[in-house]
Predict the structure of EAL domain-containing protein.
Amino acid sequence: RAKQGGRGRHCAFDEGLHVETRARREMEVALRQAIENGELELAFQPEVNAGNDRIICLEALLRWNTREHGQLSPGRFLSLAEESRLILPIGEWVLEEACRLAAQWPANLRVAVNISGRQLLDPHFIDHVVKALSVSTLAPQRLVLEVRESAFQRDAGSVRAMLERVVALGCTVTLDDFGSGPSALTHLCELRYAGLKLDRGLIKGAAAGNPESVAMIRAAVALADNLEMTVTAKGVESETDLDVATGLGCGRIQGSCYGSPMRLSEVEQLFGRTEVLPQPGPDEAIVAV
Ligand code: C2E
Ligand code: MG
Ligand code: MG
C-alpha cells in the first residue's frame, strides 16, 4: 500500500511508521513507571463449577489505568511488556498482589494468575512465587498458574523444568487457551496439569454447530478425564454456549454468562452474599453465584 501513491504517499507512510514507533516508545516509558505510580490493577473473573454454580477460582486479569488513555486491557500493552522484558517486574507485581488479596478471601477459593513464557524463562521466577506465597501466607494450593502452549515455543525444556518446580511447591498449573494453536498430545502428559482451559473459539465453534470444534472439545474432555484434569469452557456468554459446554462435558465455566471481570470492590460484595458450606470438599469453593 505504501508504494501505491508514488513518492508523496511513500513519505506519508514512513511518517506514519515513525509516529507509531514514537508512540510505542512513549508507551514503554509510561509502562516502566506504571508500577511505582500505582497504575496497575487486577480485575477478577469467576470460574464456576457447572454442577453446583459455585465459584472455584477467581482469575486475576491485569489492567493498566493510564492518565492519557484511561484503563487499558492486556491486549493493548502485553506484547510491549513482553518485548521490553517489563513483563518481569510487572509479572512479579501481579503475583504478589494476587496472593496478597487472595489470602483475605474465604478459604478454599483459589486465585489464578496468567504467566507469560518470558517469565518462565527467568531463573528468578520460582523465587518470586515463593516470596509472593510467604509474604501473603497464602497456601500454595490456592495459587493456580495459567500457561499457554505458546509459552513452550522457546526452550521448552527450561519452561517445563520451571513449571515442575512450581508444582513441587504445591501450586497447580493449568493449560490456558487450549485449542487455539498447535498442540501436542505428548506435551499434555509430560506435566501434571491440573486442568485445561478451552479457547473461547472452540465453544463459539461448537455453539455454531461446527463439527470440528465439537470433536476437539470431546477429545479434550476424554483426555482430561483420563489424566484427571478439569476442563473449563471459556468465553461462555449465552445460554446456548452454556448448554453446549456442559452438554459436551466441560465441568467448569468461565465467561460473561456467570460474570465478567470485576473490580476488587465487586468481588468483596460477592463475599458479602457468601453461602458457607459446612465442610467444603477439595474441589468445592464456598461462594455461590
Ligand atoms: P485469558 O487468560 O484467556 O483471559 C480471558 C480473557 O477473556 C480476558 O481478557 C477476559 O476479559 C475475556 N473474557 C472473559 N469472559 C469473556 C466472555 O464471555 N466473552 C469474551 N469475548 N471475552 C471474555 P483480558 O482481561 O483482556 O485478558 C486478555 C489476556 O491477557 C488473558 O487472556 C491473558 O492471556 C493475558 N493476561 C491477563 N492478565 C495477565 C497477567 O497478569 N499476566 C500475563 N502474563 N498475562 C495476562
Ligand atoms: Mg487465563
Ligand atoms: Mg484467551
